[in-house]
Structure formats: C-alpha cells, structure tokens
Amino acid sequence: MIRILKNINFQQRFFLAFVLVIFVFAFSFIVKWLFPFAQLILILGILISVFDAIWLFSKNVDFEVERSHTNLLSLGDKNKILIKIRNKSDYVFDLKVIDELPVQLQIRDFEMFLKISKKETKNLEYEILPTSRGKYEFGNINIFVCSTIGLISRKICIDCKSEVAVFPSIIQMKKYELNAIRSMNNMIGFKKIRQIGHSYEFEQIKNYIPGDDNRSVNWKASSRRGELMVNQYEQERLQQVYSVIDKSRSMKMPFNGLSLLDYSINTSLVISNISLQKYDKAGLLTFSNRIGSVIKADNRKNQLSSILQALYNEKEHALEANYELFYSGVRNLIKGRSLIFLYTNFESIYALERVLPILRKINKLHLLVVMFFDNTELKDLSEKESTTVMDIYTQTIARRQLMEKTLIQQELLKHGIQAIKSKPEDLSINTINKYLELKARGMI
Q: Which pTM does this prediction carry?
C-alpha cells in the first residue's frame, strides 16, 4: 500500500476539479440550495479519482521501456539518445517521460510527453551535449501514466541504469576524414590548395596543363611527343606529425562550454586521423609543469586508438607550462624531422617573449606550427556600442588585448615560426588546412 501511495501523482485536472468543488461550497453559503449539489460533486470527484487510481494500478497497465545510445559519446557534439516505449496494454494512455540524465549535464527540467495507443511502440529521441570528458551515468527512466480521465497519474520507474564514456570528438574526427575531403571542399572553412612543389617520389609523365610547375617539364618526353609533358610526383609518405598540447592553466579558459584544452584535444584527434589517412605517422605529446602522455609517431593499426585513449585521460593543470622541459622532451622523444602542431595560448606579448627562444630552437629541428586562440568574447565586447565612459574604457582595454594577439602572431612569423590565430570553434578546420598546405608545398 505504501509503495502504491508513493507512486500516485495528482494531475492539474484533479486540482482544477476540486478548486471548482471548493468554489461551489463557498457559494453555497449565499445560495443555500447549492450545498447538497456541492456535496454530490465532491463525492463524485472522490469516487472518480479512486476509480482512476485503481484502474491505473491494475495488472492491465504494462509497459516495456529501453534506452539506447552509442558505446562512446563525443565531447562537444550533440549525441542522440533513443528511448523505445512499447505499450503492452489494450488501452490508450498519455505519458510523461522523465529520463534521469547524467549529473554532469546539470539538466533538472527534462521531460517529454506523448500519447500512445494500445499495443503501440513509439520512439522518443533527444540530444545531449557533453562538455567534459569522463564517465557519464544514466539513471532510471520514470514514466507517469495518465488515463483518459486524467485526474491521477501512476509513476512507473524502469531500471535502465547505464554508464557511457565521453571521449574526444569522434563525430568531428569522422566528419573531417581525408577520404571525404574532396567532396567537402565546398564547405565553409575548407580551401582547395594547389600543389606548387613536389616531393621526391616519381609517379608518372602526363600532358602539361596550365598551372603545372614549369620545373617539372620533361624535355626529353616533350621532344618525342611534340608537346609539353611534365613529371608528376607523389606526395611523400610516412612523415611524422606530432600534436603537442599545453595543459597548463592558460588552457583552462572556457568558450561555449568547452575549455581551450578540450578544443585542442578534439583537434589533435582529428589531425591524427587525417595524417594516418594520408599515410603519415601520427604522434602525441602533452606537457605542463611536467611531461604527460607520450605516443611516438607511428602508423600501426591501433595508433589512433592509443591516441584516443591518451587524450581521454588528459586533465588541465593549475601551474604554468615548463617550456624548458618541453624542449628537452622534443629533443629526447621526437627522433627525425617532424611536423609539430603546438596547441597553446598566449594572452600577452610578454608571455610569448619568455618562451620564444625555446620555440626558435625547436623550429630549427622541426617544422613547428603554433596554434593559439583568438578571444572571441573580447572581439564581441570591442564591437559593442559605447554609452558610458566605463564602456569606452572597457572597449579600449579589449581592443588592446586583441592587438596583442595580432602582435604575437606577427612576432612568431618574424622568426620563421608558422603561427595561426584561431577561434576555438574553427581550430580543427584551420589545422587541417595548414596540414594540407604544408604537405602540398613539400615543407614537411
């Protein structure tokens, strides 16, 4: 009996009906003949409510509920969750479905409504947006069953507890796979890069077309054919591409729910997958005040899985990054000339000047590309209309900070270091474009 009482819920229609009964009772003090009528309405209301409750708790009400989702969820992407509900009864019901979502989502008002016919199966689909890596635990699914009368609802708790891991964005990784890039060149953010150089692996001789490199003209073949012929070369393979992630406190800054570290982790997974698709070797190095994950560049079958697992376990550190240790790690751990994408963040020119000598040394040994972040919130603030002196002061500071970002990029380029200032949401696209550009120019 106690369990039944706990699962009884009164609907809005119940309260409206008894408010009407109270109103009739109150009015009966003025109109005496209404008092018996009010008593009759009260008795009918109680009887109908009791009947509704008894019927809802009978054995005829039976549901089968199942929640399904992918084995892994993607960080920073919308992931679909499917709830399948089957009505095993011979009656029509109105349902309110409440799924107990993982605590990390901090969603406390989640509910869905549907009407389900007898013996019918319906699917409910919704999306969640994880903003942190780790284990996410789904709880039970609570169904509030309401009959056509609609005064009482019965709570049915379905044990659907499950646990799923949120990994770096697998959705983005699949989206940007190189085997689909040709069909995606028209997408915003992708740019077609004409190859202006060639590597050392000869592929074939072909007819000259405007835009081909004049240095590739094969004069012997041209004289035999009586028309210009050029040598075509394959891009070099098995080149080493490292993603190096700064995990210091400067990377804890949040943008649109994700930290800069999370954006860097998602991009590292994307560029590692693409470099493997291009038959290059992908590697990973993370650091803060100490060296973190180290995965030597390779193109073995489980390389991407190793990188994915390492990125899943990475956390921000509260201390400053030790670039001297980073340089030592590069010297000792990365053998052979490599393309290094360094994901970091500089908020002032002074912060860059402290580490610039180390970056220059690394750039002499490898091809270094520094990826740092543009503060989009400062940009929005600097473009707002000023109405007070305080607004003018705030905008001046914001514009000065934005100018420092531009000076940082110019300072890196001045010393021959590739540098890209990117919005957090455009980091993957900008990194892919830079990788394809460097491959096309034969600079790796």
A: 0.79
